[in-house]
Amino acid sequence: MIEIYKKSWACIVTNWPIYLSIAVAIEALPLFSRPLSADIMSLIYLTLFAYALHRHFLYGELVDPVPFRKNLPGKPAQKLGLFFAISTAMIFASTIVGFLFAPAIVPQTILSHGLGRIFVVLVISGFYLILLGIFGTTLPASVDLLPNTYKFEAGVEETLPVIGRLLLGPVLAGMIMGALTFFTYYALFTFKAFGPMATTATSDFVFGAILRLCGMAGTTLAVAVLCDAYRKIVPEVTAATA
Known about the structure:
Elements: H1 2-14, H2 16-32, H3 35-59, H4 81-105, H5 108-111, H6 116-135, H7 138-143, H8 152-157, H9 159-190, H10 200-233, H11 235-241
């Protein structure tokens, strides 16, 4: 797990201008488009980002915000279709199941209040975590163009270890980073550190971009966990990138 943290941190440090530009660009989307269009564009670009992260951890490629540039010699061609289908299917499935099961799990008295949204998000995130544990290795496998040595059954056998690493990686790190961000944000407002010229819109934009960065850091850890599990199933990837 420590090695996964090290690889993820090295990826973030090396590619921090790309992380920052993506976070700012996605946060700015609602300013130039309708909310639904902005959400769709965000999903597409974050999927491209996740795809680039998979190629980074599998083949050592740089995390490139511009997709389908020339890949490293001897590495599989960049084909996004199956990866996009699997990743979006898991997102939509967990969202639908979450909304269906949330009323059965969370009391109606809580759902009727503002905090209800938080509990719904937690339920959706829980289902998504389970789906990642079961089907997560299919994502790096799709990037690797489904080699003959990959067996889905072997990926399912890694379900519990993958879920455990996801809890210790992106979930734990996300909770810590999110809590620190919220605490810092409200502490700065309490002591008026933004100054009299700062507007609510400006501070909210900065706050949103920082939360995006925290989410992208969590995504980096999650991809590192999935690629590590995939390497155990398809060892020739490790040999090729060693």
